[in-house]
Design brief:
Shape of chain A: globular
Oligomer: heterodimer
Helix content of chain B: over 70%
Number of helices of chain A: 9
Structural class of chain B: mainly alpha
Number of helices of chain B: 5
CATH superfamily of the largest domain in chain A: Winged helix-like DNA-binding domain superfamily/Winged helix DNA-binding domain
Largest sheet of chain A: none
Distance between the termini of chain B: 22 Å
Radius of gyration of chain B: 32 Å
Largest sheet of chain B: none
Mean pLDDT of chain A: 80
CATH class of the largest domain in chain A: Mainly Alpha
Low-confidence stretches of chain A: none
Number of strands of chain A: 0
Low-confidence stretches of chain B: 154-158
CATH topology of the largest domain in chain A: Arc Repressor Mutant, subunit A
Order of helices and strands of chain B: HHHHH
Order of helices and strands of chain A: HHHHHHHHH
């Protein structure tokens, strides 16, 4: 458990944006792992199994609030053509002058400030390395909506990271 | 995870460079004790309060046997009750009129079922069951297709 607890907690915390909920999810993931201990004990893919279970548990947790989430996020019914455009030049690096731990703290705080419908696909894309198609399938959303939400999440994240976490 | 296409968007590349090497967050120190407490709580539960998969194999086998026995009792009991009611009727012991009427309905239904089983070829019964299964599968498939097309459709802007 010690070998995986940081990975499990990080996955849940980034998806939910809430430490208390992430701890509940991490607990459930490890209880499930214990129930499958006989299969996982000698499995080289135990880490991957735990990550998948944690992701599923976090998404299930978020699905409980899904109706509200869907309503708010679909209010303006985005399409693939409605991709927001950047109005300013991009820097080469972000948070480069910070230590790794500080950078992690700033990014985690910025992620928490994103709405669920933007944070979840962004985390699945950039941290869990799922493709747009896989995210659309997991979230039961259209490809266009996933792309737009991720694009908007990136654009919302950018000023927060540029200001080094001292966002307005 | 499928193979990701090459990333050409500069913003995407920038965030990838920023987010990807991020260290993991440290799990709270209470997590391990919480998991152990939950496991102990579950272990303390009596076996009949756990899910069926975690019952002892003897208890699972016993449960299946009891269920089969109950099914048998329902069928045998039904036959026995019908026979008992018939004998009560013929002996005149069923005095209330509603009892006789109910028995008449039950007898007619039983005779109809017997007649049906004798006259209708068994092939027809099997064909009927097969047609029912096919219809069920077809309707299930249509329902799933309608759900995917109408509810999960990308055209709905989800």
């Amino acid at each position: 458990m010690r070998a995986y607890q940081d990975m499990v907690f990080s996955t849940a915390a980034r998806l939910t944006g809430n430490d208390a909920q992430a701890e509940d999810i991490a607990q459930d993931a490890f209880v499930k792992a214990y129930e499958n201990f006989s299969h996982l004990r000698s499995s080289p893919t135990a880490g991957g199994w735990l990550k998948t279970v944690t992701t599923n548990l976090a998404l299930n947790h978020l699905t409980r609030y899904r109706k509200r989430w869907r309503f708010l996020s679909e209010f303006d019914a985005p399409t693939a053509d409605a991709q927001p455009e950047l109005q300013f030049p991009l820097p080469d690096t972000l948070l480069a002058d910070l230590e790794q731990e500080q950078r992690r703290g700033v990014i985690d705080q910025a992620l928490k400030r994103l709405p669920d419908h933007q944070r979840v696909p962004l985390v699945l894309y950039h941290f869990e390395e799922l493709s747009y198609e896989e995210i659309a399938a997991r979230l039961h959303a259209s490809l266009a909506k996933v792309k737009t939400d991720i694009r908007r999440a990136r654009m919302a994240l950018l000023p927060m990271l540029e200001s080094g976490g001292i966002a307005p | 995870m499928s193979e990701l296409p090459e990333k050409t968007d500069p913003l995407e590349q920038l965030l990838d460079r920023t987010l990807h090497p991020l260290p993991l967050r440290r799990a709270p120190p209470t997590l391990q004790s919480r998991v152990l407490e939950e496991l102990q709580r579950r272990a303390a539960l009596p076996w009949w309060r756990r899910s069926f998969a975690h019952w002892p194999s003897a208890a699972r086998a016993g449960f299946v046997l009891v269920c089969l026995a109950l099914i048998g009792v329902v069928f045998l009991g039904g036959n026995w009750a019908a026979a008992a009611a018939q004998s009560l009727h013929t002996s005149g012991a069923l005095s209330p009129s509603w009892g006789r009427q109910a028995l008449a309905v039950m007898t007619a239904a039983a005779q109809l079922a017997t007649l049906f089983a004798r006259t209708v070829p068994s092939v027809w019964i099997y064909a009927g069951l097969g047609a029912g299964a096919v219809l069920y599968a077809t309707l299930f498939g249509l329902g799933a297709a309608a759900y995917r097309t109408l509810y999960l459709s990308p055209a709905k802007g989800r």
